[in-house]
Write a structure and sequence with these properties.
85% of the residues lie in helices and 0% in strands. It has 142 residues and is an all-alpha fold. It has one domain (4-139). The longest helix has 36 residues, at 39-74. The mean pLDDT is 93. It binds protoporphyrin IX containing FE.
Length: 142
Amino acid sequence: MFTKELLIWLHVVLASFWVGGMIFLSLVVAPFIRSRPYRNEVFQEVGRRFSLYGTFLTLGLLFLTGIGIAYLVHGGLERRTIKEKLALFVIILVVSLLHDLWAGRKAVGSEFHRRWARNLGIVNLLLSLLMVYMGVRIRLGL
Ligand code: HEM
């Protein structure tokens, strides 16, 4: 029983960091930094750190804890909502890698890549909010 509790607790904490981190960046960091002369350095450094702790570490652990919960609590991956959540997770991973390894890295001095980085970031936030909703649906047995 303790393993299930621990897995769901860890999954929710990781989800809070991932979704909360993107909301914090969009509403608090970006509006403040955008008009400052040192914006490029800060965006690159904040982006690099969130990529490391967010995309690579947190998404990886969300996948592992999610699969663990699916098997330990819901008997596997058969349920449609769990399959849909996994499919959406793959899309979030692709969008994150495009954001971090392509648009974000080329954003300095390129308005085209800066706009792509911004739009990919917004798309990922909306998709991740949908992931939370799907988690609630799984919890409710839907
Ligand atoms: C961006 C990635 C993800 C986010 C933000 C996320 C978020 C959440 C949240 C907030 C919950 C808690 C809902 C609640 O207990 O009411 C949840 C539950 C759940 N998630 Fe995820 N999740 C993610 C990825 C995954 C993946 C890849 C899987 C793999 C199948 C998964 C499987 C589950 C399952 C099975 C539950 C139900 C837990 C329960 O029974 O309470 N999640 N998710």
